[in-house]
Amino acid sequence: MSDLDKAIAQLRSCRPIPEDQVRELCHRARELLIEEGNVVTVTAPVTICGDIHGQFHDLMELFRVGGDVPDTNYLFMGDFVDRGFYSLESFLLLLCLKVRYPDRMTLIRGNHESRQITTVYGFYDECLRKYGSANVWRYCCDVFDYLALGAIVLGASSTLSPGSPEDDDTEIEVCDQAGSIISRFPRQPANQSSQEKLDNSNKNTVDKTGPPGTGASGSSSGSVGNPTGAILCVHGGLSPLVDTVDKIRLIDRKQEVPHEGAMCDLLWSDPDEIDGWGLSPRGAGFLFGADIVKVFNHRNDLSLIARAHQLVMEGFKEMFDASIVTVWSAPNYCYRCGNVAAVLELTEDESGTGIFQRTNGDVGRSSGGIVEPRGGPKNGPARRYRVFQAAPQDSRGMPAKKPVADYFL
Ligand SMILES: [Mn+2]
């Protein structure tokens, strides 16, 4: 067993690794991350995760529900640390897995992966408490500076099950943590948004409302982006300074998160029911409306933006005709919010019309292989949400004092 595998085993049991091993790990991680562009290219299948916030036992539950590494490819959209009591173990485990399986683990930066924020919201204190010095916090912050700002997922299928017939028109499937299907939504040509479909449905029934093929052969009236376009993953959202994905690629990201500007906005912004741009109550980043998302997706050949950053009680929330989704992966946030968590599974397109090879460099989002799928335009990737609850109380050694929940951070 290599030293790295030993470290992974130790961290999986929620025991910190020695300081010199952290130093070595962070050094190796930085050498890997420095080679990645600001926007990492990832090929489906991949499971997309939102905020973790140091809830180590719930991260273990996430792996149990979503599949273990390296059997499942993961993309974590930041906010690994702060709030929870095990930021150190959570982040170091993810970092070990990144170094051990670099092509199967993608980590992008959240607004909490910052010196200033971790000093206030728990990670700094946790490192000091567990090591007696700030060295480990410093090593981790040096890694934060090298994390990518976003990812582009290519090659996601418009049907959920591999090898499924072309008339399998399931667009959204929601599963519980045992893997049972809670609800299933077919593709519909109508203008009704998928969130409306979700809201209107009786979540205890499994049904397909329309005749077979209804959605798959529908018009493109419900889609505003490229129907077979890529999925952009980013922690917070969009920026008024960024109208193309290529502009994200030009940012000098290897620094502390600035207080303003494009890099700050990508990590801090939120979608909202407004027109255009608005001021954010967080004091950093912006609010942005449906029109902003739809124009951005269209211009950049995107079918969907996946982001994290906001607590949603149901674990995920699609907005703006399914042009953007919030994924939240910290169940019972801060051990008190009572929410469930979710991960988003995107399956691999095996239809032969959209296979992409992973490359190490940045590739064009719409290059090579994107052709109109058989059966006409579709509304982007099929999505399977796995919803899960917090790990059982007896699986964790829980300190008595709960951290303060703060909606805005
Ligand atoms: Mn955040």
From TrEMBL:
CDD domains documented for this protein: MPP_PP2A_PP4_PP6
Entry annotation: catalytic residues: H112 (proton donor/acceptor)
Keywords: Hydrolase, Manganese, Metal-binding
Domain of life: Eukaryota
Single GO term (MF): metal ion binding
InterPro entries to which the protein is assigned, alphabetical: Calcineurin-like_PHP (IPR004843), Metallo-depent_PP-like (IPR029052), PPA2-like (IPR047129), Ser/Thr-sp_prot-phosphatase (IPR006186)
Keyword Protein biosynthesis: no
Name of the protein in question: Serine/threonine-protein phosphatase
